Backbone:
């Protein structure tokens, strides 16, 4: 029997990360944060002095990316070699740098096998942009979350303020629009829902409401 996968795709700020992690925890399944791989790769390349647009250079690093994940109290910790880089990769710059390396076709190819290796019994919840379209096209359930850029910028603003980081809402909105444009217009694996994905607009929904709806959708398919 094939190991079931639930894919959760969509742009950042839609509640995708929190939803995927909670789903994985409640189902007792493995969790793949594919965005973290692109973020760590961008950090690794910058530190190695490799330009983010150097496709051959970044691909060589991707093939031997010394990344691992460790369970933490809440969100999993992301390790680059033995260093905990969770906070370092979760910055706005980290997201922007990730979307530059993520636009390189050979880099995406180099990370495919590593992502598929997360598919282990009893199941996997995979969070990203192309989980349902490219990485796990045979997933048991595909979800695509959307929300208006304004709602997403507002959520990010509150999240950063909560961490004591001073940010400008207009600049965040601008960053979100720029990153969406790069993710939607790239030649390989552009950000778009799989034809068989369930699309959920979270603009006016809180996290508990999103989770309730998704759990009901999963139950209808006999998952969870
Ligand atoms: O999800 P997260 O914000 O961590 O992703 C950072 C960036 O990595 C995205 O803007 C996107 O460019 C890239 N990404 C991707 N494919 C994925 C996950 C992330 O291209 N499956």
Residues:
């Amino acid at each position: 029997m094939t190991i079931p996968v639930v894919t959760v795709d969509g742009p950042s700020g839609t509640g995708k990360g929190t939803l995927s992690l909670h789903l994985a925890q409640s189902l007792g399944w493995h969790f793949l944060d594919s965005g973290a791989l692109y973020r760590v790769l961008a950090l690794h390349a910058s530190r190695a002095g490799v330009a983010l647009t150097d496709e051959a250079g970044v691909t060589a690093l991707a093939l031997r990316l010394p990344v691992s994940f460790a369970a933490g109290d809440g969100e999993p910790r992301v390790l680059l070699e033995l260093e905990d880089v969770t906070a370092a990769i979760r910055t706005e710059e980290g997201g922007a740098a990730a979307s530059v390396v993520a636009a390189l076709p050979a880099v995406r190819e180099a990370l495919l096998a590593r992502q598929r290796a997360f598919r282990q019994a009893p199941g996997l919840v995979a969070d990203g942009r192309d989980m349902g379209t490219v990485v796990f096209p045979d997933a048991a359930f595909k979800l695509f979350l959307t929300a208006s850029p304004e709602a997403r910028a507002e959520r990010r603003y509150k999240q950063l303020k909560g961490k004591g980081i001073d940010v400008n809402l207009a600049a965040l909105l601008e960053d979100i629009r720029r990153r969406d444009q790069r993710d939607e217009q790239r030649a390989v694996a552009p950000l778009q829902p799989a034809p068989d994905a369930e699309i959920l607009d979270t603009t006016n929904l809180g996290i508990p409401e999103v989770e309730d709806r998704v759990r009901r959708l999963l139950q209808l398919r006999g998952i969870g």
